[in-house]
Amino acid sequence: MCSKSRLDAHPQAILEAMTTPVRRHLASSPFRPEPVPTIEQYAVNDLVSHDSYGLGRVVHVEATAVTVDFRPQTVRISSPFHKMTKL
What are the tens digits of pLDDT across the range 4-28? Predict the structure, then answer.
């Protein structure tokens, strides 16, 4: 009577079960496959431009984020860095 429900499962397992599978590209399709996104690699002291914050300098690098000093504020930006480009 006491079976483990989906609500008792680990949240990560629930999210993994809910994600959509990657669609494979058919050779006969007239459409090109979506390119694999490349994630920019940043180093400390790199100058960057962000669409919302403007110009800044990378002050800390983590595996999945960078911390950038935009002078009036310091912001931690998570990967992938869609709105940020290296100068």
Answer: 555 565 666 666 666 667 777 788 8
Task: Report yes or no: 15 and 54 within 8 Å, Cβ to Cβ.
Answer: no
- pTM of the predicted model, to two decimals? 0.60
**Residue extents of the structural domains in the chain:** 9-33+41-86
User: What is the gyration radius of the CA atoms in the chain, in angstroms?
Assistant: 20
The counts of H helices and E strands in the chain are 1, 5
- 84 by Cβ neighbours in 10 Å (0-12 / 13-18 / 19+) ranks as buried
* Assigned CATH class of 9-33+41-86: mainly beta
